Amino acid sequence: MRSRIIIPFVFVVLILLGWTETHYGKQEAVSSVSAFADAPDFSWHAFDGTMHTLSELSGHTVVLHFWASWCTPCREEFPKLLTVAQSMPDIIFLTVSSDEDHSRAERFIVQMQRASQTRNLPNVLYAFDPKKTLTLDVFQTVQYPESIMLDAAHHLRRKFSGPVDWSKNDIKNYLRQLSNSQ
Questions:
Q1: In the 8-state DSSP scheme, what is residue 138?
Q2: Could you give phi then psi for residue 87, rounded to 5 degrees?
Q3: d(C-alpha 24, C-alpha 164), whole Å
Q4: What is the pLDDT of residues 117-131, one digit of tens each?
Q5: Which domains are assigned to the chain?
Q6: Range of lowest pLDDT (25-29, 61-65, 80-84, 107-111)
Q7: Separation CA 49–CA 163 (nearest Å)
Q8: Do residues 142 and 136 touch, judged by C-beta distance below 8 A?
Q9: Which side of the chain, N or C, has fewer Cβ within a 10 Å radius?
Q10: 75 to each of 37, 107, 163, how far by Cα in Å?
Q11: Rg (CA), the chain
Q12: How far apart (Å, rounded) are the C-alpha atoms in residues 70 and 97?
């Protein structure tokens, strides 16, 4: 009797979360996040301690990418994200660490740059969010990695909960379309 209740409940929850079979070869949660809703003009701390705001990136397509150094899927995904960022210099990749330990997060970045054979890409920004103000309070990110795509007007366009295979052409094409719609 109990399984008759649980199975439909799980099915409904998955539908509400936007769970879809994608051509990435696995299940991943994808949603269109209230298409064209404005992203709030949030601020963040860069790893060097300086403060920045989203409005400073006005006119640029932005990929917000939430990660943590202890997250195994983040370790697998991040080098591919950096490789795509290198091939798309017009798109800003704002990567947000929710680590509490600054040195651990910095080591992660160095390791990922080595793994992807990239270094100091000007379109990849690193934010440090140890209190999870941006991660939890602003974007309610609870599953790492998570990526949110913003168009040049900073409208929320798409959200991926869980890892994304950044090497797939459909992801790269989607980013190019967003970037070209400026």
A1: I
A2: -85, -5
A3: 8
A4: 998 899 999 999 999
A5: 2-180 (3.40.30.10)
A6: 25-29
A7: 28
A8: yes
A9: N
A10: 30, 12, 10
A11: 17
A12: 10
